[in-house]
Amino acid sequence: MPIPTRRSFDSVDPRWRVLLTDDGSPTLVQSATAEAMHSGCGAVAETRHVYLQMSGVAERLARGLATQVLEVGFGTGLGWLMTAEAALAVGAELRYVGLENRLPPAAVIRQLGWERHVQHPDLVGRHLDWLETLDPQSPRRLRIDRATLEIISADACQWCPEAGRAARSGPGSSRFDAVYFDPFSPELSPQLWQPEVFGGLRQLLRPGGTLVSYCVSRPVRDALTASGFLVHKVAGPPGGKREVLRAVTPTNDAGESTG
Ligand SMILES: C[S@@+](CC[C@H](N)C(=O)[O-])C[C@H]1O[C@@H](n2cnc3c(N)ncnc32)[C@H](O)[C@@H]1O
Q1: What is the DSSP track for 79-100?
Q2: Is 141 close to ligand 1, i.e. is its CB under 6 Å away?
Q3: pLDDT tens track for 103-114
Q4: What's the CA-to-centroid distance between 185 and ligand 1, angstroms?
């Protein structure tokens, strides 16, 4: 099928352009690399399917279960907004940690108009107001009812292995139910798709926890397997990639990583 022509326009910051994806939702494209933050087939459709549904987070929240999510590559905040929307709808407790080394300015995020795609009345406005006051160097928390967001400004290449080592001696209750692994592609950021990073993430997940991502390439699956994950290809979003990735930690996992 031919790729449809997708409209794009300048953002208020020359480092980013806004691209309209096929489901009508926008995403950002990095001017220097032409790398997009979401699939051109649909930013909202991809986030809902790959991250909320394939991770099991949507189902946990619908059952009212307290849920902890780590996102590698916080980007535009869409993963957090859609996950928080699901949590707030049922009053479930959500702890969401977003890891990001180059947060786009709040004014650029405001241009995306997430309030047209995320239905909760206050969520997007409160998130944007909070982003405007954020000091990128110090971790800060946003709390909305029972949903908490923390953005950590760090390079995931170092942060994941270090936090993974610390998690091995920390309380099991602080482990994540799911990792949304959404950095730029292995071609652009090969250093992130490595066993050292995945090994750290395995230690940060609870036994039976899930890592989901859009990339199913053989080297990525091999790196996850080498880190002790059970790796599966699953169906991609409607109109999008044929297959996406779901990797699970063993249910008897004590966190020992081979990666
Ligand atoms: C595909 S976009 C993520 C989109 C995001 N999940 C969303 O819903 O908007 C990838 C993000 O990963 C971030 N990133 C790239 N390399 C990183 C690194 N080494 N450490 C932390 N974040 C990184 C980029 O700055 C970018 O925001």
Answers
A1: HHHHHHHHHHHHT--EEEEEEE
A2: no
A3: 999 999 999 999
A4: 10
In total, how many domains does the chain have?
1
Q: What CATH number should be reported for the domain holding residue 225? A: 3.40.50.150
Ligand 1 within 6 A of 259 CB?
A: no
- The pTM of the full predicted model, rounded to 2 decimals, is 0.95
Residues 6+ apart with CB under 8 A from 116: none
In the chain, pLDDT over 70 holds for what percent of residues? 95
The answer to the question of residue 254 being in a domain is no
Residue nearest to atom 12 of ligand 1 (CA): 73
98 lines ligand 1 (CB under 6 A): no
What's the gap in Å between 76 CA and the centre of ligand 1? 9
Is the residue at 9 inside a domain?
Answer: no
For residues 136 and 152, the answer to whether their CB atoms sit within 8 Å is no
Residue nearest to atom 27 of ligand 1 (CA): 75
Q: Which residue has the tokens 């969401």?
A: 96
Ligand 1 atom with least separation from CA of 102 = 25
Other beta carbons less than 10 A from residue 147's beta carbon? 24
Rounded distance from Cα 252 to ligand 1 centre (Å):
31
- pLDDT for res 259: 40
Domain carrying residue 160: 40-248
Residue scoring higher pLDDT (6 or 147): 147
Question: Residue 13 falls within a domain, yes or no?
Answer: no
The verdict on residue 30 lying in a domain is no
